[in-house]
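User: Fold this one for me? It's AMP dependent CoA-ligase.
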Amino acid sequence: MESYFALARLGALFVPLNHSLAVPEVAGIIERVGAVAVLGESALLDRHTSLPASVRIRVPLDKPVFEALGTVDEPVELPEVADTDPVAILHTSATTGQAKGVTVDGGSFRAIALGWLVLARPTDDIVMVNCCPLYHGSMVVSLTYMAAGATIVLMPGFTPQRALAAVEENRATHMWMVPQMVRFMLQAKGSRSTDLGSLREILYGAAPMPLDVYAEAVERLGCGFRQVYGMTEVGGPFVTLGPDEHPEPGDVAARIPCGRVVPGMSARAVGQDGQEVPRGEIGEIVVRGPGVMQGYWNDPEATEEVTADGWVLTGDLGFVDESGRIHLVDRSKDVIIRAGQNVYPSEIERALTAHPDVRDAAVVGVPDEDYGEVPLAYVVVEEGTTTATLLAHVRENLAPYKRPRSFEFIERVPRNPAGKILKKALRT
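Assistant: Here's what I get for AMP dependent CoA-ligase.
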């Protein structure tokens, strides 16, 4: 967090990365954005010994590297940074699976934060345990609550025991999690004996809350819940459902609504013609407002594909009810959401087919009690190729959360005449 504030004040671009990315994935992103400095813990930097030539500075944040600042002869002249100046490149994946950098300016972060301050009304007595990494919307949530004077407790990595201890030791009032983390915490040994009486609210997002988890959490924790919906291209979380609008567990017949758009932003459901559909009718959710991205970094064609007349196309299908709340019913993309993290099948397919013994591959998401969804890979391979061979290959080339849990060996991947994979046939 300190690095973000410092880099923003310097007028530099902050490019947070998922620490679990494989070495080739990190190198590819660094090369695309032309990064000149890399900051991180020593153990993480030691994993990435061969970085692109553009990197001239390596800063281990867990060592006393800032002592020299006190010996600078003259203060550094800081530039003026306008709201329209880019401050961060937040990475996501496009439908092709190629990681894309979303260019976000200071005005975008400010717009989303101000909307949250109005709608969620955080206060300075809040102590929030942030269980999520800071390379996506979690950072925006933390910045927003910090702006209200709240205390943010960051974790080096999520484990149920670590989260429980953080709440008890800090008398935390709030937590920021994905639904699968809530499940793991409830199932953890010692969860019933840990003092969680200080909790007032759990914020969750990135995936729907399983109804059984919601019911158990309400019964055992006795706190309120706030759902968050957002995407990197819209500056982070732009929709929220507060505790007062969450249903009683016994009244839940379907997915919980996503919630209301934060003030200053607009969202609607549109048909294939791009026109708004009536309330209650399903369409694609589109968003506009000062929080939306400037565009994909150095990729105007990809930017044009997801924008129309100032609106950002989310790729999510849903509807707006009579009270103005957004409901999601499905995804128009084939994204797999594993424990709140987006996994793109085409990226896994590309990694698999890079192996000389894999002739073709198709990946779909399958339900999983612990993670929500996990990737299942269908592969066409040369005779003698084993599951162990494929597991070793993906371990080397993909982050842990992207790796298929299992493989199905098939004779051919079903495709339509245009060559597109018929994933519906694989799911049935």
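One thing worth pointing out: The chain has twelve helices and 22 strands.
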